[in-house]
Known about the structure:
By secondary structure, the protein is an alpha/beta fold. It has helices spanning 4-15, 18-21, 25-37, 92-104, 122-140, 152-166, 190-194, 203-214, 248-260, 283-297, and strands at residues 52-59, 62-69, 76-81, 107-112, 145-150, 174-178, 237-242, 265-270. It has one domain (4-297): Alpha/Beta hydrolase fold, catalytic domain (Rossmann fold), CATH 3.40.50.
Amino acid sequence: MSSWQNAILQVLITAQGNKRRLSSVQAARQRERTLALRPGRYAPPRRLDRVVRLSIETIAGWPVYTCAPRGGPAIRQVLYLHGGAHIAEIKAFHWDQVGRVTSRVPAEVTVPIYPLAPFSTAEATVAGVAALATRLIERHGAGNVVLMGDSSGGGIALAVAEMLRDQGSEQPARLVLICPWLDVSMTDPRQAEIEPNDPLQSRPGLAEHGRLYAGDLDISDHRVSPLRGDLRGLAPITVFAADRDILYTDAINLAERARAAGTFIELHKGHGMFHGWPLFPTPEGRAAGDLIVRACRQ
């Protein structure tokens, strides 16, 4: 049984109306236009300064933040990719997750402010993040690098791992995927059964955002929908899934296909949980946070 904190948080999430903005193609396109015209603020909240040392540089035209622990040296390098359905900017709760990973692992966390659709699409975005991952691996060694992402950022992380393998580059030590969006087609029939219980997301809007992110690529291209790619030869994967999340099926399918391909994967299911639950300060979220820290240290 889930906690009362989780129950209250799901009520608050429902009240914010995000699901309504994803309820139709028309609503999703309006959201795309709104965010293209007035993109969200990406700067980290000032409270983060209490737990990390922040720096920023421009790499290939992208702002790239580095968050270093204040209490001592980092034992891992983490490349963190935020979610937002490929159209929305990094949020305060993403930065809070970055702060926890930085201080608790401890890790030096690289956070690229990668361009969003429609101004960048899968072909350029995945290649740009793969270049950043290669840079970290060359500087710090593959065994010290963790590739982490939530939601659409989790999809980018898996696509980058596939690209690194295809390029003959080393894999990172581990992939950590938090409620990842791995197939933008939204055609798994089980998603229709989950959707009435999902407080946050709807299929029509997500499919529209996925189409925008695909750009000139087909939505089945593994750079867009990495679940459809080859899962052989990838780094060990830790994945979190919520059974009140329509993207639950992506994580379940990933676990099945990764095991069939001989890739190690550990799947953590959140019963009664919603999309992205490990990013929030509920008892369940804190327990998932412990598992994320453990995965980064392995």
